[in-house]
Write a structure and sequence with these properties.
There is one protein chain. By secondary structure, the protein is mainly alpha-helical. It is globular and about 70 Å long. The protein has 13 helices and four strands. The strands form two sheets. The chain has a two-stranded parallel sheet with strand order 1-2. It starts with a helix and ends with a helix.
Length: 257
């Protein structure tokens, strides 16, 4: 008998010994749990403020009555800087950050390197190869000499020159919108910390906790599970169907938040 068959049979045997909770029992237990509407509103407001959705936060405050913990006008500068990053105007974003607080980039060399790296990526995207080579040599190479991690990132970025920009390559992710979104989030966190605010919203962390708790409970009993947190639908799996997970499940969305 193969190891795969043995593992499968062991998993099936273990699942048969678990306590089972029916869909009806599960729904009845959930109905007993009271969730404070005000707490939900605070979670939503926390997410909107930290992620910089000023207009949405204002509208939500008006409709729900939830009071924002900070002046919503303070979000405006972060929104303008995020927009500059997403447009690829990194030089403008750097100027805006320095206007707000020059110490942010002076005290965060990793963030500053990533901003300069994105400037290099934009030069390459525009096809301005001469400018890209000059910028890499003058601005990024010296930082790479001081930090091996920066050097590896610079070498990976320069690899873009060896491939077609519109084709698939080992470094094509650097040209994807997600690259600029990642940088915008990193800069947004630094801005929040400089303003003595939380840098991470609570909602994604709660999703991670929920997913982890569900995985732990799955080892002890059979119960209706949430396979996709974006739908929040409970699914009752047959006995011995295997562990929670798979494409479209909440694990990827929760951990990637």
């Amino acid at each position: 008998m193969s190891n795969v068959q043995t593992s499968s049979q062991a998993a099936s045997t273990a699942s048969l010994t678990k306590k089972a909770v029916t869909q009806e029992e599960w729904n009845a237990r959930l109905a007993e749990v009271q969730v404070d509407r005000e707490d939900l509103n605070k979670l939503i407001m926390n997410y909107l403020i930290i992620e910089g959705y000023k207009d949405a936060a204002e509208k939500f405050s008006q409709e729900s009555g939830a009071k924002p913990p900070v002046n919503l006008e303070s979000i405006q500068n972060r929104m303008i800087i995020r927009t500059a990053i997403q447009r690829g105007n990194i030089e403008e974003a750097i100027h805006l950050v320095n206007d707000l607080n020059p110490e942010i980039l002076d005290t965060n060399p990793r963030l500053f390197f990533h901003l300069q790296q994105q400037r290099l990526i934009e030069y390459i995207r525009e096809g301005n190869i001469i400018k890209a080579l000059q910028f890499a040599q003058e601005e990024l190479a010296p930082r790479g000499e001081e930090n091996p991690e920066f050097l590896a990132e610079l070498e990976r970025t320069m690899s873009l020159l060896a491939f077609e920009l519109n084709g698939q390559s080992p470094v094509s992710d650097l040209l994807a919108p997600a690259q600029k979104q990642k940088l915008a989030s990193e800069l947004n966190s630094a801005l929040l910390l400089s303003q003595s605010q939380e840098k991470d919203p609570k909602l994604p962390e709660l999703l991670k906790v929920c997913w982890y708790a569900q995985q732990q409970l799955d080892e002890k009993m059979v119960f209706p599970k949430i396979k996709d947190f974006t739908k929040a639908e409970f699914v009752m799996e047959p006995m011995g169907s295997g562990p929670i997970g798979g494409s479209g499940s909440g694990s990827s969305s929760a951990t990637g938040a």
